[in-house]
Design brief:
alpha+beta; 4-stranded antiparallel β-sheet; 8 helices; 40% helix; 28% strand
Length: 554
């Protein structure tokens, strides 16, 4: 059996061994044949038969093993295939499950987004509904307010018209009536109604009514200063509003102390004919010009002999202080700028005679007006700068008789010999604009002689007809026109505190005008001794419920 197994397992080597063995056996057989004869041959045959059976059996077993191995291989392959299919199916299933989960998540997200959008839409809808309701409510309120406003406007207009009426009645009130209370009460109620219902800050009638009512309580010498014997040619108020200086054709320069209840005066000099006067911005110096000379006083001791500055070759017509210098112009067509020691720091010559000067401390600008109507601007302390032409000459306008800057220095007012009165923007010169005209105020016939800016852009002018006008130049309202005072006005000044205007002219007097309405109201309330009686109230106020102006008075 082992031999057979070796032959089967040995392959070609097994067959070779077999042959060799057979030859040996045949050899033995031949040997035995001679000895054993047929017995040995029979044994050999049986042995060969057994060998053949063993070989067949081994072959059958090998084939069975081979078939079994092949069947096992096919079974294993089929099993692997089934496993792969199952794994593939499982993978596919997992993928589908993952896809289903993603789809469900997407659905949930979409549902959440939809819910959010729905909530936002509901919120916006609610807000819109609230807004619509609010708008409707606002419209209703606006309509209600409009109705009330129209009613109130109508009432305000009636009260405003009543205010004007009261002012006019106060102005027309019998000046010889000893009871000045009624005149003042009408003016005060006119101011109160106007302030409450219209707030027209510079109503001409009400301004005049307050001025005249207050004036009625005062002595005449508080509103008319007497001291000159000839035309008052120049006026100036100190920056602290304490002093007034006047220069006259009688050769006098008078310093008026305005601090007391009544002004006191001191004649500083009597010499020649003075044409202009000015204070320094620091309140320390006073200067006036006469003929070819400028006289300068130290206000700490104005009684001392003044310092005399010279340099002009013809009459000096105008004089101003800058922050650190004195500027003068005259008929010699020269503009001289002196330092405070009296030395000439700059000299400019022009083609026309200088008729007026002005200075803006805010812009460091010197304004120069000429007989031919030209206006130049010069920057202080800039020796190299050429004067800039603000206004070219127009023959029909004539001499620049008055020139003044406002507080900011961004506008300058100019009065002309033909009665024209213009306000110009100063900044437009540097910007090379074609026109610098800000506003042309109504012409005055006869002409304006002088102009001056005051507090809050108020502008005062003096005319050759003896009238003083107070303008809110930027507004289209008429000026306050103070009645004719004297004959021909040639000078005007306004106090820096905005309370008073001063004018002087041919009749040798200086006239004073109160212009601070609130200050006048406060003073009048201290002077009146009663309220309107019920009868007076009904007569002047109509159906308006009775009120007291001052509670502690009858």
């Amino acid at each position: 059996m082992h031999s057979g197994d070796e032959n089967f397992d040995g392959g070609e080597g097994g067959h070779t061994a077999k042959k060799r063995k057979t030859l040996i056996l045949y050899f033995v057989f031949l040997v035995l044949l001679s000895a054993g004869g047929l017995t040995f041959l029979a044994i050999i045959n049986r042995h060969n038969a057994v060998e053949r059976q063993n070989i067949l059996k081994q072959t059958s077993i090998a084939k069975s093993k081979q078939i079994a191995l092949e069947n096992e291989a096919r079974k294993n392959a089929k099993a692997q295939e089934e496993q792969q299919k199952e794994a593939s199916a499982q993978t596919e299933k997992q993928k589908k499950v993952a896809d289903i989960q993603k789809l469900q998540e997407s659905i949930q997200r979409n549902k959440a987004q939809l819910a959010k959008l729905s909530a936002e839409h509901s919120e916006k809808k609610s807000e819109l509904e609230k807004k619509i309701a609010k708008d409707e409510s606002r419209k209703a309120d606006s309509l209600k307010k409009l109705v009330l406003f129209e009613k109130s406007s109508s009432e305000n207009l009636r009260l405003f018209e009543n205010a004007n009426s009261l002012a006019i009645k106060s102005l027309n009130f019998n000046k010889h009536n000893e009871d000045n209370n009624l005149k003042a009460l009408l003016a005060l109620w006119a101011y109160k109604l106007n302030s409450t219902n219209r707030n027209d800050s510079l109503n001409p009638d009400i301004m005049l009514a307050l001025y005249e009512a207050n004036k009625a309580f005062e002595s005449a010498d508080k509103y008319v200063f007497k001291g000159h014997n000839d035309v008052v040619k120049g006026l100036a108020v100190s920056p602290n509003s304490r002093y007034l200086a006047s220069a006259g054709a009688d050769g006098k320069v008078i310093l008026w102390d305005l601090a007391g209840s009544k002004p006191s005066s001191k004649v500083l000099i009597t010499a020649g004919e003075f044409s202009a006067v000015a204070f320094s911005p620091d309140n320390k110096w006073l200067a006036a010009c006469s003929g070819l000379n400028i006289y300068k006083w130290n206000l700490e001791n104005p009684g001392q002999k003044p310092e005399v500055l010279s340099g002009h070759t013809a009459k000096i017509t105008s004089l101003i202080f800058t922050n650190t210098q004195i500027v003068s112009g005259g008929l010699d067509k020269m503009l001289l700028i002196y330092d405070m020691s009296g030395n000439v720091a700059r000299k400019d010559s022009f083609d026309s005679r200088i008729s007026s000067l002005a200075f803006s401390g805010a812009q460091n600008l010197i304004g120069v007006g000429f007989d031919d109507g030209t206006i130049y601007l010069i920057r202080q302390n800039d020796k190299k700068q050429e004067p800039e032409v603000l206004k070219k000459p127009l023959k029909q306008m004539g001499q620049v008789s008055g020139l003044s800057f406002n507080d900011k220095g961004n506008v300058v007012a100019a009065a002309y010999a033909n009665g024209s009165f213009n306000v110009y923007y100063t900044g437009l010169v540097a910007n090379k604009q074609k026109s610098s005209l800000a506003k042309a105020l109504p012409r005055h016939i006869p002409a304006y002689s002088a102009v001056v800016f005051g507090k809050s852009n108020l502008l005062a002018s003096a005319g050759l007809d003896g009238k003083v006008k107070l303008w809110q130049w930027a507004r289209d309202i008429p000026p306050v026109v103070f009645g004719k005072q004297g004959k021909r006005l040639e000078s005007i000044a306004i106090s820096p505190d905005g309370k008073r205007i001063f004018s002087g002219g041919k009749d040798k007097n200086i006239y004073v005008y109160d212009i601070d309405q609130q200050d006048i109201v406060n003073r009048l309330k201290k002077k009146i001794t009663r309220n309107l009686t019920p009868y007076e109230w009904n007569y002047f106020m109509g159906n308006v419920p009775y009120q007291k102006l001052i509670d502690n008075l009858q």
